Each structure stands twice: as structure tokens, then as C-alpha cells.
Amino acid sequence: MPLTKLKFRPGINRDVTSYSNEGGWVDSDKVRFRLGFPEKIGGWVKYSTATFLGTCRSLHAWVSQVSDQYLGIGTELKFYIESGQAFYDVTPIRKVSTNSITFAAVDGSSTLTVTDSASLTVQNDFVTFAGAVSLGGVITAAVLNQEYQVLTVINANSYTVTAKDTSGSAVLANSSDTGNGGSGVDGQYQINVGLDTGVGGTGWGAGTWGRSTWGSASDLVTTAELRLWSQDNFGEDLLINPRDAGIYYWDQSGGLAARAVDIAGADFSSQASDPPIIAKQIMVADNSRHVIAFGTNTLGSGVQDPLLIRFSSQESFLNWSPSPTNSAGDLLIGSGSTFIRALETKREILVWTNSSLHTMQYLGAPYFFGIQPLSNSITIMAPNATIAVDDAVFWMGQDTFYLYEGTVKQLPCTVKNKVFSNFNYQQRDKVYGGLNSEFSEVTWFYCSNTNSTANGGDGQNDSYVTFNYSEGVWYYGNLSRSAFMDRGIREYPTATYNGNIFSHEVGYDADGTAMASSIESSPMDIGEGDRFMAISKIIPDFSFVGSTEGDPSVSMTMSMQDYPGSSYGQTGSDTVALTSSSTTTLPFEQFTQKADVRLRGRSVALKVTSSDLGVSWRLGTPRIDTRTDGRR
Fold this sequence. Notes:
The chain is an all-beta fold. Helices cover 1% and strands 38% of the residues. Among the domains are: 4-40 and 516-628, Jelly Rolls (Sandwich); 94-190, Elongation Factor Tu (Ef-tu), domain 3 (Beta Barrel); 229-379. The protein has two helices and 50 strands. Strands 2, 41, 42, 45, 46 and 48 form a six-stranded antiparallel sheet that branches. A four-stranded antiparallel sheet has the order 1-50-43-47, with no helix packed on it. The longest helix is centred in the middle third of the chain and has 5 residues, at 416-420.
């Protein structure tokens, strides 16, 4: 019998049975499709040896007028600006205490009790002390006068920290540490930290209620929502907003040592006109230069309306009070119960609520903006689950995917059941959608149910699902990323995880270690599947272009199956590697010529795996030498 080509349809299909998916792929990890053929994805390296505190869930890159590059990074603990591979803490200050702080130490303990009237701290808050004197022993002024993170909260007026030296090592008080730090101790309190994990449920008994004993102080934050940030540059400056909190402004001219300040605070009291004091998201409209606040408080009130949109006067982030001489104003979303997300495309601003999608467009005077409904029957998984590609927008819903290209429609997905059947809905707000335009990919990173804390995981994003909008195919795998940003200002796509920034599509390794990749096909049979086959030879078809390993190789395995419900029986595998005559000047396609096997079964499946350092591979159209071998 002549050689049989193993030609597979591009993309992964898990929404039909493996047997009915004959000629298709059924599983993958760290593999993409290009021109219809599978290949290993690009690798990543750490962008900087420096790290930041917390889990990043917001990235925004921009440049100054003198071409300095900046990257805004929002975590549940702090807000940073990265420049020159260093992280600068610009977290806003919420309270300054002057000459009002005292300390108390206990002999043999590193725990310091701090007393400050109405400090209103929560666990993990950050405070910087200044002006303290020694407590009399090893708790010196140098130990006290630095930044601390709150260990526990005793009540509204007191909390504890762990004494440390300037290197961060704990310091144990001795019997001479009987002072209180003096009468001139000041404290700068950064805005309260947020949650790094979702708290399931709402209402009585949910959130942080009941986390400790009756009458005790809460040692958690005062919101059950994950800390999410929105940010946008206003020229070379930056506006930032922790969801359901205030709007803050970082002035580039003040340098990277300056902190962001509240636009409704004392710094702008003589200039600001009714700025929002709370919002779910902020944005600077590119075409009209309005600052827009979504889910904000009504004018002259501190009450938040989750469907209210307010916009500033043009070219101003401070003037929000409408008048005949400016362009400030507001809009009310007509459906849904709460605002979720706004995303700007080339021609409009799309606005999502929990059940509807609207288009918001600049009209000019006298109304300036108008809003119209597009759909009242959609869902959206999380605020960061939307991805814009020119005028097309993709997003993840609660149990499906959507596409907007002038009209809203569900996006057919061949891995839908795979994704949502193992989705950790308690951590749904961690979903982060990113664009990799070089490969026409939109990817959603999410926490699988397998990685939930209930199942022994860390509750963070560990999985991804990708739609290649150029080829119309889906694939998925395992990769821990909390935020992702396409290349543009930066040379490579940028992602974050575990306090690090990674540059993606660099080489084919995972930050210096081998990256495992694999793809597996559904079983294929002869004719109608009524006969057994015997396979004696496999002729591979691979390209190793891009490999940095001198002898790159992959493992190719053929597995036989007698019936759809049976397990795989006979297997035959071989290592496909470059031959000694292959050189980097050749197309890296001189490799193992064939693999001799003795396999028999009704159907056969192919699996390709790679787990070596420096290996890039791409699969073409392998052949097998097969013949009919009877009916049983």
C-alpha cells in the first residue's frame, strides 16, 4: 500500500468526541497554528532582575515628550511606574499623621505596636515613619524611620508591624527598648491595599464578614472585590484609578520619586471643579481629549451610581462641572445593573454592563457624547476580558465567547466545553485578555478549577485559551500570567507574573529553562473503520528553524486503538532529530529519515512532544507506511 499522508485540520477541537474528530487535533500545550500547521510558541525572558510587590492586573505603556518609556503597573498592594528596568513606587498617600504616632516594644519580640488615632489601616497596608528616635535599645531611629507593612490590625487606632533593619531582617527588641519613639513621629499612609483573591458570594455572610471572633477587628480589607486598576496617560502624565475608589494623577515633570495625588484632594483644591471621588474605570478619549469616569458618583454627591458616566471638559482632568462655556457632562447607561468595562476602538467607545453592550461616540457640541445600546443579551466574564483588534472586539462571556464587528454575535469555539468545564468562577475577575498581533492571536488567561485553593492550588491564573482570528482556529494550554500587553511601544509583547515582567516571543525557552510543548491528534482509521491496519514505518516531516540547541529533537509517538471506548494499546515512538550533516545554513530539515515500527489496530493517533532546551519545531505532513490487516 502506498504511503499515507497524515494531514490534520488546523486548531484544537474538544467539543466533539475524539472519534468523530478524525483528522483533527484534540489536545495541545504551548503550541500555535500558523498557515494551518502546528508549531511551538515563542519563549520568554525576564525583562528586569528587579521585582515588584503584589500581583499585576493592569499594564499601560506610554512615552514622554523626550521619548522616555514608561510602564504603569497596578497590583493589589501598590502602583508602580517602570522605567529603565527599575520599579518606582508612586502609590498615592491617603493620610499624613504629624507628631501623633507612638511605638511599644516587647522584650525578645520583633513585633511593634503602633498607636495612631483614626489611622484606619487594614492588614498589609504600607506606612512610612519619620522623625522617630530610638526606643532605648536595639530599636533605633534607623530601624523605625522607614517603610513598614501592617502585620495585624488591633483596632481603628492601633496596629502592629515587624521591626526590621535596613536590609529587611527582623530585629528583636531587648529590655532597654522602653521608649515610645518620641513626640515628633510622622507617618505617611498609602491608600488601603486591595484583595489578591476573589471572595465568593455577596450579601450577609459573604465577603470579610465573620472572618474573626465576635467583636474583634477585621484583619482583611474592607471590600470583597479583587483590586483592579484602570490607567491612561494624559499627555506624558498618568491618570490611575483603583476600581471603586478615587482618581489619581502622576505628573511626569515631578520625576519618578513623586507619588500620584488625588485629583479631588488638597493638591488641586484651588483648581478642581467637582471631580469624581469614586469610579469603576477611567479613560482618556483619544479623539476628543476628554477624561471619562465610568460607574462614578453623581455631581455634588458622594453616592456612587454604577451606571453613571461623567466626562471632564476637553483638555482638562480637573474641570468636571458642566457649564455653557465648557464641554463637561454626563450620561446614564440605559440597561444592566452595573458597569463592567469600557474599551476604546478606532471609531467608538464600547461600554459593557453585566448584561448589555453599548456604543458611546463623540458628537461634538452641544451634547458632546451620545450612547446607544447594541445588545441587551450578552454576558462578560470580567473587566479585563475584552480585547480590541482595530474595530473588532473579542471578549469572554460567562459561558461563551463574543465578537463585535458592527454587530454582536457569539464566536463559535471548538474548545468551549474544555475551558468552561474547568473554570474557577470564584476567581473570574482575574481573567485577562491580551493581543499578540504578530501571530493574529487573542488570548485569555484564567484560573482553572484544578488550580483553585480548594483543590490545593494557589488560586491564580494558570491556563490560557487562544483564538487565532486570521486562521479562525482555537488552541489552549497551561501558562501562569496575570496581565498581558501587545508589542508596540515595547519591542516584544509584555506579560507579568509573580512580581516579574516577561518579554515574550524571545527564543523558545521559559526564561532560561526548557519549555515543554505538545500536541495530540484524534485517532484516524482506514476507510469506514471496519478493518484493522498494520503500520511498519513512519516518515516524519519537521522543521527546526530557530533552534539554538545544536542537536534539536522532538518525540513523535504513534498510538493504536481498537475501539473508540478502549484505551490506547500498542505505541511506537522515535526521536526525530537533526542529522550530523545538518547545518544552520540549511533549512534545518535534514533529520531522522524514518522510524521502523510494528503497530496494529483499528485506528492510530499521533502525538508530538518536546521538552529540551533551545528547541524550536514545526510539524508538516508526516507519512506512514500502512496496510490493511483484516477485520479482527
